[in-house]
């Protein structure tokens, strides 16, 4: 089991939680990004730098992820592809994507994108709060505990 991170858009606070979890659980953490990132020196943490381009990091994750892996992403199309491969997907706010909810989330995302393309100001997501960070850490801990049992 490995943890993959859509690292270009992942908040720093979430990466910090993941770094600590990878060390504590001794699990491989792979950050996929199209730019160089500073990561801690660790046998458990690795940066996978991909070429620049639209969805190149996402494609790399989808091609490499295996059933049972965890992907951390806020990208709903990536989450949908990951769930289709029987892997788990968790967003930085601590919400798991599932076969049951990902289609609805994808439909809502597409609807909002259509509104924005017509000039409607739909706003953006709120800033990541302390509660979001705590929810993420709790869900990650539960996931890792299930993997160990």
Comma- or semicolon-separated keywords:
149 residues; alpha/beta; 6-stranded mixed β-sheet; 5 helices; globular
Overall radius of gyration = 15 Å
Tell me the span between the first and last alpha carbons. Answer: 13 Å
Largest sheet: 6 strands, mixed
Structural class: alpha/beta
Unreliable runs: none
Q: Assign a percent range to the helix content.
A: 40-55%
State the shape.
Answer: globular
The arrangement of helices and strands along the chain is: EHEEHEHEEHH
Strand order of the largest sheet: 3-2-1-4-5-6
By DSSP (H or I, 4+ residues per run), the number of helices equals: 5
Give the mean pLDDT: 91
SS strand fraction = 15-25%
Task: Say how many strands there are.
Answer: 6
Write a structural description.
With 149 residues, the chain is of the alpha/beta class. 45% of the residues lie in helices and 16% in strands. It is built from 5 helices and 6 strands. The chain has helices spanning 12-25, 56-64, 76-84, 102-117, 130-148; strands at 2-6, 28-33, 45-49, 70-72, 88-90, 96-97. The chain has a 6-stranded mixed sheet with strand order 3-2-1-4-5-6, sandwiched between helices. Strand 1, helix 1 and strand 2 form a beta-alpha-beta unit. It starts with a strand and ends with a helix. The model has no long low-confidence stretch (mean pLDDT 91).
């Amino acid at each position: 089991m490995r943890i993959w991170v859509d690292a270009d858009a992942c908040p720093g606070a979430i990466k910090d939680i993941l770094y600590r979890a990878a060390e504590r659980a001794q699990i491989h953490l792979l950050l996929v990004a199209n730019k160089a990132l500073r990561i801690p020196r660790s046998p458990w943490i690795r940066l996978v730098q991909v070429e620049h381009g639209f969805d190149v990091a996402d494609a790399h994750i989808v091609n490499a992820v295996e059933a049972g892996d965890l992907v951390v992403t806020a990208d709903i199309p990536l989450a949908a592809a990951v769930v289709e491969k029987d892997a788990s997907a968790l967003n930085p706010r601590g919400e798991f994507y599932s076969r049951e909810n990902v289609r609805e989330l994808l439909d809502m995302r597409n609807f909002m994108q259509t509104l924005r393309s017509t000039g409607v100001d739909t706003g953006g997501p709120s800033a990541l709060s302390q509660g979001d960070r705590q929810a993420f850490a709790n869900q990650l801990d539960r996931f890792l505990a299930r993997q160990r049992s």
